[in-house]
Amino acid sequence: MARITAGVASSHVPLLGVASDFNKDRDDYFGPIFAGYDWTREWEKAEKPDVVILVYNDHASAFDMKIIPTFAIGCGERYKSADEGWGPRAVPDVEGHPDLAWHIAQSLVLDEFDMTIINEMDVDHGLTVPLSMMFGKPDAWPCKVVPLAVNVVTYPPPSGNRCWALGEAVRKAVESFPEDLNVQVWGTGGMSHQLQGPRAGLINKEWDNMFLDGLVGDSDHLRRIPHIEYLRETGSEGIEMVMWLVMRGALGKKTRALHRHYHVPCSNTAIGHMVLRPDNGEGLDMTGSDTVTAIAAE
Amino acid sequence: MITEDPKHQDIHEYLAEMEDIPGTRVFTAKRARQGYHMNQFAMSLMKDENRARFKADERAYMDEWPLTEDMKQALLARDYNRCLDLGGNVYFLAKLFSTDGIPFAEAVSTMTDMEFPQYREMMMNGGRSPEGLRSIRANAAAAKKEDR
User: Fold this and answer.
1) Does residue A259 carry a catalytic annotation?
2) How is domain B26-131 classified at the architecture level of CATH?
């Protein structure tokens, strides 16, 4: 049986991809950001996930204004890095897991989530930057990826509550997949940032940290934050944080934090990063990885 | 942190709230419709050959698109606040930032009342505080109260 063993949250600022690709990741500006991911890179080497379900948004790369899917799942064999206007990032192709992806897609539709199915697309920084942050610069990504794209560009995006519920349905889908797979769910984007208008540059450390706090434990109050609250408090692009709730929803009733990192600024954005373990007494903590985590932390 | 019952969202109330944030144009359906061709034009700049043609003669390239004269002027002037007013979206306009070869944050700073070095400095010092920038209505009410 496939199991969701961990959740990872991370910002996906495009400049981090540039820093990684041009070896600036340890300079004065980017060093403190990347240092907060060192723990996670060691931890991922020990965890060895087979598949990552990567929740992200496309930034006018694969989708333009012609078609705007609210929730879309990638069922393809592989995805290339998108040319976002300065040539594609020089990162490995992303290998999909069509068997698992189609299984999840079917299960979600039966569960009344009307998914858009994507068989061919390029993936932009929303998906490739988190891979770089968690895995560094390998010749090939160490796991397969099921892209799960959420519209957070054209209003209204899905509610936080709906994102959380989608995560719950993803969990159910994964657990009914017969193959033994170690699956992680990643929620990406955020934290506070506004990229447009006279209010651009908005950052709200206090709110961001309340949000990080809220991901841990058994409270589900984050799912009831309305869009206007994200917009007022965390800037027009802070709305991306609803994608973290898909990840949180997929971890079940209770979580505990293994790692947490917060840094301002990266370009216009507050960087937030967290690693969570489902904590539901269902055996998910018995992967042996607690020991491994302790080693990684040293 | 405000939370509420997600089942009772009135669309008219929702859309009115979107217009109540100072210095912010939320990309609502209305703006998406208004700016459709401007955003699709910007999207076309993801292709190398289109970037080259645009750079060679910006006006002539834009004339191939069903853009209003207002849109063309705003784009030629790189007046991004005006572009937002005409329905542009920052992720689409970003294709023009990269065609121009300027950093994203620098392009963003042109929409504020700061020059880029000053904007960078603000970000290094923790960014712009949301204090006093949450609600146009709340600010107006507070100003009225002060007048009394």
Assistant:
1) no
2) Orthogonal Bundle (1.10)
Instruction: Give the separation between CA A146 and CA A96, rounded to whole angstroms.
Output: 6
Give me the pLDDT at residue A282, please.
65
Strands A182-188 and A51-56: parallel
CA–CA dist A64, A79 (Å, integer): 17
ipTM of the complex: 0.95
In whole angstroms, how far apart are CA A223 and each of A226, A237, B6, B43? Answer: 8, 18, 9, 33
Interchain proximity B46–A61, CB inside 8 Å: yes
Cβ atoms within 10 A of the Cβ of A290, count?
Answer: 12
For residue A162 the two structure tokens come to 């709906």
Strands A3-10 and A94-95: unpaired
User: What's the rounded mean pLDDT across residues A14-34?
Assistant: 95
B145 exposure class (CB count in 10 Å sphere: 0-12, 13-18, 19+): exposed
Nearest CA in chain A to B83: A197
**A203 and B108: CB-CB below 8 Å?**
no
Diameter over CA atoms, chain A: 52
The model's pLDDT over A233-286, given as tens digits with 9 standing for 90+, comes to 999 999 999 999 999 999 999 999 999 999 999 999 999 999 999 998 865 554
What is the distance between the alpha carbons of residues A175 and A251, in angstroms, rounded to a whole number? 12
- From first CA to last CA, the distance across chain B in angstroms is 30
CA distances, A220 to each of A41, A67, A225, B20, B37 (Å): 28, 32, 10, 28, 41
Beta carbons of B95 and A60 less than 8 angstroms apart: yes
Are A169 and A106 within 8 A, CB to CB?
no
Segment 11-50 of chain B within 8 Å of chain A by CB: 14, 17-18, 21-29, 32, 36, 39-40, 42-43, 45-48
Q: Is A125 a catalytic residue?
A: yes
Tokens in use for B10?
A: 């009135």
The letter for the amino acid at A67 is: I
Q: How far is residue A288 from each of residues A5, A49, A292, A293, measured CA to CA in Å?
A: 11, 13, 7, 9
Q: What is the pLDDT of residue A287?
A: 47
Range scoring the smallest mean pLDDT among A82-91, A120-129, A185-194: A82-91
In order of A23, A128, A192, A250, B124, the CA distances from A116 in angstroms are: 37, 21, 28, 19, 40
**Phi then psi dihedrals of residue A161, to 5 deg:** -65, -40
Report domain extents, chain B.
Answer: 26-131
Residue of A nearest to B90 (CA): A196
When CB atoms are compared, the residue of A192, A231, A265 closest to B21 is: A231
Instruction: Tell me which DSSP letter residue B131 carries.
Output: T
Torsion sign over Cα A113, A116, A120, A123: negative
